[in-house]
User: Fold this.
Amino acid sequence: MFNKSKPGDPTGLSIPRVPEPPRNPDVPHSPDSPGAHEPVRQSAPRSTNLSTLSAGVKYEGNISGGGDLHVEGSLKGDIHVGRVVIGDGGVVEGSITADLVEIRGRVSGTITGKSVKLYGTARVEGDITQEQLAVEQGAWFQGRSIQAKREPAIIQTPAAAPAERPERYQPEKPVAPALPGAKPAA
Assistant:
């Protein structure tokens, strides 16, 4: 029923040991730390400024900030963030202002952004003001799309600055007022 242990077996049982994976000399580890034999995994950098309004959560009020917002729940209020994603189950009643806006759920209100994308499951009722707009097949949109124009940066050098202008137009030659029936001066 039980096997006798062999001399030199520290476990006292004749259970074969699992071989340790080969160690990578480039990966730092210490024998005391848990997972010392596991390589350190480096994942892609993630934004630490992501906020999520989860499914089943109802929120009333405005949300603003510089980070990212993912909405899967219900929000009554305005959103002003850097990037917003309205998920399939997300519902927003209010205006949205962000650099990047992605809509998969329902929005009732105005949307303003540099880039706005309406996915096939999107339902939007309101005006969209954007620099770039993408609408997938199946998306429903009731409102106006207003193309925002990028304002080019105006750089004035001191030499190119316009000269001071008089308050009103002054012609170089005096012009006689036109009188009805008057003969032109020679």
